[in-house]
């Protein structure tokens, strides 16, 4: 498949490619526990289901961390690729995986060691304890596989391989569905069999995702990539904090619910186990439909993140509108199902008595009364996460689960008992919806302002350039001087196009040489005996000569058609006979070059200066060979500047001033 262009492809096509596999992956992930409960309900009974609901908060805790690292790394990857910072994106992915491994092992050990205490804390009763212990110990063993696999799944989707992520999850889910009835009914292992089936399935998905590490499209993961950085780990975690808080809020809510049902259920006609069991099942059914909304929004994350980083705000707004419309449709369907067929939904998980079914209908119809509002609230939280605003994202989620639901549940249960817990659901959903709408409206207004301001600015600059004569700026620069970034900023300020690495495709078409060869060899002449020997047989031209000729032709064609900035590639020499060419040489002190090379290009600080000198020597040889002039001879440049004396931004301003002065003198 051709890779999808996040900056140009139709929004609908991108959402289809990213969201559908994401939805399937999340639904499948939610099905792991749900499938267990279906078979446990029929094979063990509703007490077995109650036990899995007591263990469920532990699974949610682990999922919170794995999604924080996975979704945070995905957002980091998308933003850095949008900003054209590939090295930083690579480091972000590696560190996201590292921290997921560390935390998963720690959590697995702690949960295994303190499982009895955790069961009590999460609302386990005496009747549920033995089932919960049998199920929980086995689940704890599989925690590292589940967490790392989930983290990798999110990253794989962001790398542009959503189908791969989807397939790995589907394989695990199908395997779980196959193993559950075998272990529960055929092997008569009961609730232990369900746990074993889940762990084996998670291990298979984990190994499939691990195989992807050598197949990344947007970056290249190597052993050297896995250099721990606390700063990057912190950034990744903060970008994924919304996913973490979402899941942690779920865990806290379940704990509060179980505690309140324990307290007030004992004095109601439903008893303690029925509310705990039924409410857990109701929430898992709701999670399936919620996963669809999360999948739509999470699938839009790389699209929103990339275009926001690339400042294409119109595409950001269009993506947001599409996501909101789809999410609202899903939440509306959910509302209809919960209000009309609750008996059918609860019946999937086995049979129960009259009180069991009565409470199930109440839970669906009351607790999920305003589920129609959830589409906007969930999608808003993930949108803010995608544009790098984790605080707003976290607040949206926090408002629903913590600020509104828990106080409402505690207060209302005092007056209405177990029914008060159910009434707290629509109260929290309604208030959280209002908060989401307010923040979303304010943010879209900012996007609209950015969208209208930037084109006007560019238009004014472009008009001013068009009023003047044709202008081509060439920039030769020392490695590590920041010349490439200066060229980028200068082109943006002047409203003209920058030609740098985008020349490679043109040159490849012109020369017949591969793009990868050009990227590796340009401005780095190969002086080997073999190269010189071959030149005697192929029209006296080496590949280096063919490459230089192709680059020269491309540069001349570009300069004849438009005003532009061209970085390197002997452009000043190629255009030496052309008028209206402003030739610049950018250099800096060794200390400045080292600092930039280490920060932006990933060079090792100890060997950076040596590598910089090596690269600059190669550039000088290449330039001298094809131009017959000295690369650092400042006499044949219109302007040269030491970047370290003024800084990048000021250097760009000075160059602009010098261009204007030259044009004034020419007139």
Short synopsis of the structure:
With 667 residues, the chain is mainly alpha-helical.
Detailed description of the structure:
The chain has helices spanning 11-43, 46-82, 86-113, 115-121, 126-141, 143-158, 162-186, 190-210, 230-239, 241-265, 273-309, 313-340, 342-347, 354-367, 374-386, 390-416, 418-467, 483-494, 503-511, 515-521, 529-534, 543-561, 571-574, 590-600, 608-627, 643-646, 648-666; strands at residues 472-477, 497-499, 564-567, 581-587, 639-642. The longest helix has 50 residues, at 418-467. It is built from 27 helices and 5 strands. Helix 3 crosses helix 9 (230-239), helix 12 packs antiparallel against helix 17 (418-467) and helix 15 packs antiparallel against helix 16. Residues 455-468 and 525-542 have low confidence and may be disordered. The relative contact order is 0.08. It is mainly alpha-helical. The chain has a 5-stranded parallel sheet, sandwiched between helices. The protein folds into 3 domains: 55-221, no CATH class; 262-450, no CATH class; 468-666, P-loop containing nucleotide triphosphate hydrolases (Rossmann fold, 3-Layer(aba) Sandwich).
What's the layout of helices and strands?
Elements: H1 11-43, H2 46-82, H3 86-113, H4 115-121, H5 126-141, H6 143-158, H7 162-186, H8 190-210, H9 230-239, H10 241-265, H11 273-309, H12 313-340, H13 342-347, H14 354-367, H15 374-386, H16 390-416, H17 418-467, E1 472-477, H18 483-494, E2 497-499, H19 503-511, H20 515-521, H21 529-534, H22 543-561, E3 564-567, H23 571-574, E4 581-587, H24 590-600, H25 608-627, E5 639-642, H26 643-646, H27 648-666
Parallel strand pairs: 1-3, 1-4, 2-3, 4-5
Helix pairs in contact: 1-2, 1-6, 1-7, 1-8, 1-11, 2-3, 2-5, 2-6, 2-9, 2-10, 2-11, 3-5, 3-6, 3-9, 4-5, 5-8, 6-7, 6-8, 7-8, 10-11, 10-16, 11-12, 11-14, 11-15, 12-15, 12-17, 14-17, 15-16, 15-17, 16-17, 18-27, 19-22
